[in-house]
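New to this. Please check this protein:
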Amino acid sequence: STLSSSSAASDVYKRQTINLLNSRLTTAFTRFAHPPSSSSSSSSSSGSSDSSVQSTGLVDLSHIGMTTDTAASVAQLALAELSRYTAIDVLVLSCNSLGDSGLQIFLSVLSSVIGSISSLEMFDVGMSDVFVPALLKLLHRYPKVSRLKIGDNHITHTGMAILAGNNGAAFPSTLTQLHLGGNVLGDEGVYHLSQALKQPSNNVAFLGLRNVGMTVVGLSYLADAVAHTPSRLTELQLRDNDFTGSISELSCIVSFCSALSLLDVSNTNLTNDALLPLLHTLTADPTHMKELILSKNEFDRKTSVAVRAYLLSYQCRLSSLDVSKMSTRHISNLFIPLLEGIIGNKSVTSLNLSGNCLEGPAGEAAALAVGRKLRLHTLNLAGCSLGPSEMSNLFDALASNISQLKSLAVSNNLGGEDCIPSLCRLMSFNTHLTKLEFQDNNITSVESMMEVGTALLNGSTSMRNCRFGGQSATANVASPAIRLLFKDALAPGRANRTALSYLKHNHPKAFWESNWPTNQQQQQQEVGADALFRCTPTGEIRVVSPFALSLDMHCRWLGSDHSVVV
């Protein structure tokens, strides 16, 4: 307010802003603008008719503080950097306070030079219905735009009617991705969109309609559009709308969209009346869906049984299932049918059950699923009321190294001190897990956390990301010494862990013991016919051979060539 009190001060402020933007632009173009390809250079030297067309890749101008006042200056700076190009693959203007006038100024300057744009990303730029006619002209100016991302703006049904044009004929046939989420379209806006989707020239494959104020009325418009025209939709985002009263609309959409591979209907107030027909439709034709997100909707045992039937159906190709925060009722056996389906399924690699009650039998079923499900790579059980017994069973299943799980989230549970021995075994012996989140499990003992960190430091794990503290009232203790220990254990390229992984991979009969024998007699009893080795804090591997117990052999990791000296 002080700077804007006088025009002189305002001019100084604008010049300082432009200088700052200039430095940011230089960094952005240095990083993202690619030089002309060799094919373009060769065509130019050969005198081809389109030799002047040179293309740059990604031009990312997001989060650089552009406003209406600075739009023209930034556009001129961008033109100076793009003077040698006539085509842009991806132009990103997201998260700038441009407004309608700023967008008009910037794009009018840029379009005077740039002849082709393939992708426009303008999330959260203050766009309203006023700019939509200019956006429509821009699409006509650049008919090869395939991705249009204008979410989180202020477009209403009025702007959607203009964008859809005369019965939707304004959509370019090259448009394959349309992101409209976060605008206030309402059911009337979805109606105008559905008219565009009915056109034979429609090729939209990705449709983002999250949080657009749609109800079951708008959902019926969308279902009518895909029912009357062969749809090419492969990904459909509908989360954060209100589909109260929906029955068959979603199942209709899925049945007519034969190529649909991703469906996101989280937090849409769906009941069993809508979920059961949807799951029955998927069970009848399970070959196309790859990712299904049902979180924050109603869930009971009938729905769980229907999910099991879908997962066990012949030719099910689902790879990711999200049923997080589905029920607040503490029914311990509610998710057991679903977990039985996970155990029998051969395609699911990612499962999100966070925010559900899995205490007792359901927690044991989850541990069993981890132990038997070889293909599962990502599992989220955060906030599932897992007690010490369920957590211990889960960690022991992972310590056996049968599972191929790479990412596990068990934060905000009730593990406590009793699960520490199993957690230490997991840290010591699991070689597949790369990410673990176990913060907020009410582990208050410094000694227990030090044991976990030491097991991670000396173990054979491949872990690179471990969250262990927390922010809630049940946060685990995380003293400076504990943080330093975990930081050291998770440091990339640690010699001891890398060398140990190398030895264990190339010498499968060798095994590791945390308690090192102190005398030859104890060594002879424990070693048997196998080699015994351990990592020392200095990065050495100490090996005791059963054939030369009096000899200490030291293996030191040399570097990137995977060589070990004995």
Summary: The longest strand covers residues 548-557. The chain has a mean pLDDT of 78. The longest helix spans residues 7-32. The two ends are 71 Å apart (CA to CA).
